[in-house]
Amino acid sequence: MSALVTIVYYAMTAFVAVLLIWNFIKGRKWQEEILTLIVLIPFLLRILRLK
Amino acid sequence: MIQTRKALIAFIGAVLVVCAGKSFYESRHLKEPVVAGPGVTRVRKLSEFFRGIKGSANDANVYVLEGKKPGGSILLLGGSHPEEPAGRLATWVLTENAVSEQGRVFILNSANRSATTVTRLGGAYPPDFTIKTPWGGQKFRMGDRWSNPLDQWPDPEVYVHYPTRQELAYVDVRNLNRAWPGRPNGTLTERTCYALIKLIEAEKIDIVIDLHEAELQYPVISAIVAHQKGADLAAMASMMISGSEGFTIGVEYSPEVLRGLSHREIGDHTAAISLLLEAPEPFLDATRGRTDRELLLTGKDPFVVRAGKRGLLFERIDEKGWPIDVRVGRHTSAILQILEVWSGERPERGVVLTGVPRYAEVIEKGVGAFLRDPAQADKKALFFE
Question: Between the N and C ends of chain B, which has fewer C-beta atoms within 10 Å?
Fold first, then answer.
């Protein structure tokens, strides 16, 4: 059960990370791009299992 | 223009990811050398006692010191809570210096090794600390109270202790000192406790001593916490320590209603006497100031001192703080006194150690004086935590 929850958790993390990267690419304002980047960092670290 | 800007921002982000990731990776994978001292006759793995933790983060080294004269057996647990470093350092000092003249000593420097690989999430703890030695210094992982979520996850809404079904705080599902006696098919933390119980049974351990530190705002501090089977032993050791070692230590009786703790469950579920030692660690106090290496090693904090002046503490503190040498020395002397009292009462099950520095000597020379240089060590005697 824990393994299943973990897999779902990482899948959700990766999904949100992809959305943030998409937002970053499509963004027009530099302030929004920096904000997106700051939000993205912990998601990337979590996917890489760095904690 | 926009593409250049995005590339620049992305580059800065990548630098931040690499810097943070490097710090986290090094914190989790820092190798801590242990030079097995002249008394270490064997080094075993905890998984030899229970295969269910083989290959896990908690398959810890078990250093065995065997005396020529037969006697009893004791188990010393350092690192049940790695954020209480005096416990780990005391076991390090014993592993690298102690010689058993009678009986056997089993030592774990990292009882919950997983918890040594992470720090308090959101706590801004330092990732490591360095003990000065005559040959430079030795770096240790800072560690946390709980197993690393990378090794045991997710946490439940409420932690239901096995086998009593007592409800405890959710995060304590990863607390080694709330998971005793453990179970073979449980979480990593429960399986670690189960492996330790199997060790205690297989090696006919007489006494288990679990080494801890506590915040000064916690009432159970500067004390030997004893299961009822060890109450007399703890009381006598407390008197001997207070009379001859240069510091005082009290006795607290293990409450029967609070489950999962080593001093309760080991005594209840095995033939061993279970004792837990608490030394003062201002680093853990909620009213502390900056949480850095300096505070960890010196135990000096003006905010905790102020709390003491307002009568909010259960242990004294002044501007001298509670240095790591004092805290480690309290543990080594307490262990020696417990063994001396035990060996006097039960000579046929005695455990006699030599080569272990006492409280005054650790303070005089510093704990680093009792750590061996891994660069000068025989490769066969070199191990890593």
Answer: N
Q: Check CB contact of B20 with chain A, cutoff 8 Å.
A: yes
Instruction: Using an 8 Å CB-CB cutoff, list chain B residues near A49.
Output: 150
Q: Contact A37/B10, CB-based, under 8 Å?
A: yes
Q: What are phi and psi of B31, to 5 degrees?
A: -90, 125
Size of interface A-B (CB pairs under 8 A): 45
Q: Between A2, A25, A45, which is nearest B21 by CB?
A: A45
How confident is the model over B330-347, as pLDDT tens digits?
999 999 999 999 999 999
Name the pTM for this structure.
0.94
Q: Where are the alpha helices (DSSP H) in B114-175?
A: none
Pairing of strands B273-280, B207-214: parallel
Task: Please check whether residue B123 touches A, CB under 8 A.
Answer: no
Are B89 and B139 within 8 A, CB to CB? no
CA dist B373 → A39, B43, B138, B325 (Å): 44, 19, 8, 19
Cβ(B362)–Cβ(B89) below 8 Å:
no
Cα–Cα distance for residue pair A20/A33, rounded to 1 Å: 10
Quote ipTM for the complex.
Answer: 0.91
pLDDT along chain A (51 residues), means of 10: 87 97 93 94 93 78
Out of B17, B118, B149, closest to residue A44 by CB: B17
